[in-house]
Amino acid sequence: MEPKNEPLEPTVEQAPERRGAPDGNLEDEREESGLSQPESSAQKLPPPGPQP
Fold first, then answer.
1. How does pLDDT run across 33-48, given as a tens digit for each residue?
2. Do the Cβ atoms of 37 and 47 come closer than 8 Å?
3. What's the maximum distance between 2 C-alpha atoms anywhere in the chain?
């Protein structure tokens, strides 16, 4: 139990840090994707949403 708690501590601390990174990247990617997706995706190929 003790050894499990030790590795869990660093994981919990890294969790918030990791969450912040993907969150920021997701927001940036979403904004960039949303703006460039309609132009690039629409011209290149249909969006992955409606596609099965």
1. 555 545 544 455 655 6
2. yes
3. 57
